Amino acid sequence: MLQLLRSLSKNRRLIQDFVARDLRARYVGSSMGFFWSVLFPIINLFVYMFVFRVVLNTRWSDHQGATTVALIMLAGIVVWSAFAEAMSRTTNCLVENSNLIQKVVFPSEVLPVYIVASSLLNMLIAMPVVLAAVAYHIWIDPETDPAQLGRMLAAGDPGLRLGVTLVALPLLVILQGLFTAGLGMFFATLNLFWRDTYHLMGVATTVWMFATPIFYPAHMVEREGFGWVLDLNPMHWLIACYRAIIINNTWPDPALLARFALATVVTLVAGTTFFFRQKRRFPDLL
Amino acid sequence: MYESKASKAGNADIGGGSAIVARGLGKAYTLYDKPIQRLYDLMFPWKQRGREFWAVRDVYLDIARGATVGIIGENGAGKSSLLKVLTGITHPTVGEVHVNGRIASLLELGAGFHPEFSGRENIRLNCSILGMSDEEIQARFEDIVAFSELGDFIDRPVKTYSSGMHVRLGFSVATSVDPDILVIDEALAVGDEHFRGKCTNRLNEFQERGKTILFVSHDMGAVKSMCQHVILMHEGRVLEQGTAEQVADEYLKRAHARGNERLSAINRTVDAYPRWGSGEVRTGEVELFGANGRKTNVFDPGEPFLARVHYTVHADCFEPVFGLGLYRSDGTYINGSNHFWRQAPVKLGAVKAGETGYVEMAFESLPLLQGQYYLTAFLYDHGKPAPTPIDHREHVVTFEVLDADRMQHGILFLPTRWSVHRRGTDGTVRSFDSAE
Chain A residue closest to B1 (CA)? Predict the structure, then answer.
């Protein structure tokens, strides 16, 4: 981990260049530019809303209205997309950049780090839109249906709220970055030993996504007796923390936050240790 | 493109005046029958499943600062692997390397470029890897762009570049970053004549400024003219090192032997080429002989050359004529001749079934320059009003010319004569002649 920090401070210019280049590549060639960062999660939202709400007719919970549910889903999608994209790209980053690693003395740890940074920045571009949508439904177009308000009151649901807890958002973003980087470095290294890792990663993230309460509420899983899945899923802890802040203006559950911080430390130590242990062999493994 | 390897404290006294010191250097790669075994090795390291392959072993080098060193050897001799270890891209399995100063390397085509990045971004990328500051990059940027002569392409992704453009950009960057040691791996062969000239100039500049140059080449002429010291590699080991003359001669000797081996393999497959004719007389083996009547397929320019075509007569015929066509490997027709169309023709008249013999065509001095060539055997019936084919055989034998001196370029050695006439300010003319 110390090695990572040392390398990062030494190569920060290089990382900056890579991130800037990556963001530009994402937007320069396309006519819609930055809108894609925003549009992509919204399109995703509509697809999943259609499938889960219209076709399968699943109910989130009685006391939450359709717009609230949509915003809860959107918050989850934005966070998850950043994570999933970073995982898929970091796993293959060493193989993809073999030209740099094999022909130049290249600080290869720059690769997973810049990918994670780029995906987080991309998430931060979409985040204000989510916040704006929440704000819109709080102050400009609030819930007025008395029946719905009554149900919320009965369930003790404070409804959509935004406020001071937003200051905790950077902490979540940083933790998410470190967690993703740790996992990414681990699988990027493993991918050199076993190229199937990359293909498995595609399947694994899909399974993981559906195992995480993004399109359905956590209490449904608990009711069906699969609560233990949530107890093992750091991404659930993270997304729950995000939602507390973005949707309800409540401080994240300290227990969940602590568990996620612990998971971050574990993946980061495991990932960087594995990565830097094998780093000398990278050119030979490609 | 280039690598920095800061001279570690305490290394300077090891090297003294050395740019690179290698001691007992070896690099082994582990080869696996199945890729999954690599994962097993990682998880259960107590039992090793792969086979070791030593790409480089037992290398001891001491390259003096300011020297230009050539590394030669056949394909797979470990030249590139050695360069990778010396530049610090891969780590030696055994032994140690000490490098004093900043190394810039140009290994293979497009090495160190990100294909999606533009030329401009790649220059920045490579400069950043070396740890250069923004000001340093800015200061050199225009130089690099100008030298590469890429024009508008500098803003296009490198993946759209031709191989020549890759080399131009690579060479520009590697030499513009002011390295102490420059390592070049065969890359220059790709550029056009104009750019190669520029490169040579720049390399000469480097030499004059006392920089160390290490380069891999198959061009003995270039090696002999540029390097004081040459290292000959064979199967991962340093077979010989010493002055350019001495080592290059050893290399050529081996190249001859190897060329013969390879060419005789090629020549065993000549039946694959077209053959046609009426067949009264059939040509057999075509043998080639060099100096002192030695049977060979590899020649030096200016060496005596003799081609012997064996034949067997299967049916009576009148006035068969043997000829040979000389072609370069790309199909360029260089020369055709026979024993009939001459000032003093050899006329065979009637030949009877059962006769055998051979026909010879010779050069006292082979006028071909370096390259691969082949012969086509003609056997035509000149007893008829128009010559008709009896046995026409394309591509009967392949041979190679290896030119160590490379004093002339092209296909043919021509006896050129040069003179220079200098008119001084006082009006006197001094002439200098160089007859070949």
Answer: A104
Interface of B with A in 52-111 (CB under 8 A): 84, 87-91, 105, 107-108, 110-111
**DSSP 8-state class, residue B8:** P
* Of residues A65, A84, A122, A55, the one with CA closest to residue A214: A84
Is residue B203 within 8 Å of residue B213, measured between CB atoms?
Answer: yes
**Chain B closest-CA separation from residue A57 CA (Å):** 45
pLDDT means over runs of 10, chain B (436 residues) = 39 60 90 85 82 89 88 84 88 90 75 81 82 82 86 86 84 84 75 78 87 82 79 88 81 78 74 84 91 88 92 91 90 90 89 91 90 90 87 90 79 88 88 78
Cα–Cα nearest to A244, from A166, A182, A138: A166
User: A21: which chain B residues are within 8 Å (Cβ-Cβ)?
Assistant: 117, 121
Q: How many CA atoms lie within 13 A of A251 on its CB side?
A: 3
Residue of A nearest to B112 (CA): A100
Backbone angles phi, psi at B37, to 5 degrees: -60, -25
A199 touches chain B (CB under 8 A): no
> What residue type is B322 in one-letter code?
F
Q: Which of A17, A97, A103 sits opposite B128 (nearest CB)?
A: A17
Interface contact A104-B84, CB threshold 8 A: no
pTM greater than the 0.90 cutoff: no
Q: Which residue, among B32, B76, B97, B30, has the nearest Cα to B236 in the 3D structure?
A: B76
Q: Mark yes or no for CB contact A284/B108 under 8 Å.
A: no
Asked if residue A193 lies in contact with residue B38, where contact means CB atoms within 8 angstroms, the answer is yes
Beta strands B18-31; B94-99: pairing state: antiparallel
Of B35, B84, B113, the CB nearest to A99: B113
Q: Give B208's contacts (C-beta < 8 A, 6+ positions apart).
A: none
The 3-state secondary structure of B88-101 reads: CCCCCCEEEEEECC
Q: What is the CA radius of gyration of chain A?
A: 20
Cα separation, B296 vs B290, in Å, equals 6
